[in-house]
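User: Here's a structure from my thesis project, written as structure tokens. My advisor, Dr. K., wants to see whether a designed sequence matches the one we expressed. Can you design one independently, without my sequence as a hint?
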């Protein structure tokens, strides 16, 4: 019998008993009402005391969580009482914006730790507050239910970073301009690995092909080789996280559930777009690091953020992309010009954007004309004439669907 039916049954029983008491005046019916009242008071006291004595500790999973992963969080629940505690329903705020909360149901043991697990999906990158949204206690008879807000519970929340997933990209994308041949790219490759320029500790994302195995065995830690022609080059991955002309779907003027569903669908679509851009940027950063090249990651969104692979390797770049906040209305072409004026024009640039405007095409073409290797990774629809204009100035334009689809089938995975 469900809890709702149980409460209805007890209510009907009490009402019938009261009518019988008033009609007959028999003391037996009075004792039945007294028993029902004691039952309700006992359930209320049990639920209230359970919520008061309730404590919980979260154990987050070890390792890096990537977008699309399913995460399990271990829970240690304790009700510090010698009396039988009430049943608990603990609702959690998770890293999945598609659901309001995830609940776990527990019947704790008095004065002992009770283990449980809550599992949820992490579809999008970002930093999320994982914690208790509410705790609901139901007495053993299922007659009384009390709720306590998670805001009143200390130590029941923690933050988790979800990193963007990476895609396999062909190594030649960093070497060739659109007007260079394969022989030029191969010669650049040979010059790059001609001599060792520096040695440093291994960071996550570094290629094992660049490990100095003899020195690593002697020192007891992985040492990575940096090569001439790559470490000092100005390599930059620029993420245009601004939203000056972000398209918005028409939202129904009707109120209520339909409007909420439409707003939720639009929000999810925006998150999917941001996820794809962050994943493309992470893929290029990983490719730079795997080839032993120092790279600077710059993101323009709500604020300007920057990370350098020399300070933490790919892990530092990956974390920035997990935390990058999309927004702001700064024109991407002006942001690029400002970056070049402040830090100098890069030798190699990967520009990730979802808004390939005419002014941005002109700014990127100017860089290509000055000899920089420029790759544009664009999400959304390809503007008419943009590819021809960029190709004419030696700039490579690759749409997101081309990179994700074609590169997964390419044979360049061993060059990463």
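Assistant: Designed independently from the structure alone:
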């Amino acid at each position: 019998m469900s809890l709702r039916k149980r409460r209805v049954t007890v209510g009907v029983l009490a009402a019938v008993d009261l009518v019988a008491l008033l009609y007959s005046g028999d003391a037996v019916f009075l004792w039945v009402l007294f028993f029902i009242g004691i039952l309700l008071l006992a359930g209320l006291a049990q639920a209230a005391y359970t919520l008061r004595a309730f404590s919980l500790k979260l154990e987050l999973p070890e390792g890096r969580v990537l977008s699309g992963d399913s995460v399990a969080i271990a829970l240690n629940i304790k009700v510090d009482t010698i009396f039988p505690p009430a049943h608990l329903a603990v609702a959690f705020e998770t890293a999945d914006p598609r659901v309001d909360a995830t609940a776990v149901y527990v019947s704790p043991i008095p004065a002992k730790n009770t283990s449980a697990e809550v599992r949820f999906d992490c579809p999008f990158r970002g930093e999320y507050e994982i914690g208790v949204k509410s705790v609901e206690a139901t007495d053993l008879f299922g007659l009384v239910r009390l709720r306590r807000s998670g805001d009143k519970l200390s130590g029941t929340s923690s933050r988790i970073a979800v990193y963007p997933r990476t895609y396999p990209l062909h190594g030649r994308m960093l070497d060739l301009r659109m007007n260079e041949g394969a022989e030029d790219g191969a010669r650049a490759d040979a010059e790059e690995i001609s001599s060792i320029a520096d040695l440093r500790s291994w960071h996550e994302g570094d290629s094992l092909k660049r490990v100095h195995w003899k020195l690593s065995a002697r020192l007891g830690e992985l040492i990575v080789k940096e090569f001439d022609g790559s470490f000092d080059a100005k390599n930059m991955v620029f993420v245009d996280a601004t939203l000056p002309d972000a398209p918005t779907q028409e939202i129904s003027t009707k109120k209520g559930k339909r409007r909420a569903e439409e707003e939720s669908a639009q929000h999810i679509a925006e998150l999917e777009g941001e996820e794809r851009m962050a994943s493309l940027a992470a893929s290029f950063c990983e490719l730079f690091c795997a080839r032993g090249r120092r790279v600077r990651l710059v993101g323009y969104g709500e604020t300007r953020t920057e990370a350098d692979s020399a300070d933490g390797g790919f892990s530092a770049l990956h974390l920035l992309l997990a935390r990058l906040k999309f927004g702001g209305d700064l024109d991407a072409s002006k942001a690029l010009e400002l970056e070049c004026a402040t830090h100098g024009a890069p030798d190699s640039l990967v520009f990730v954007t979802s808004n390939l405007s005419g002014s941005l095409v002109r700014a990127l073409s100017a860089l290509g004309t000055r000899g920089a290797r420029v790759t544009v990774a664009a999400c959304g629809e390809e503007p008419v004439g943009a590819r021809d204009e960029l190709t004419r100035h030696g700039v490579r334009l690759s749409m997101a669907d081309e990179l994700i689809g074609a590169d997964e089938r390419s044979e360049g995975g061993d060059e990463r």
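When you compare it with your expressed construct, this may help: Residues 10 and 309 are 67 Å apart (CA to CA).
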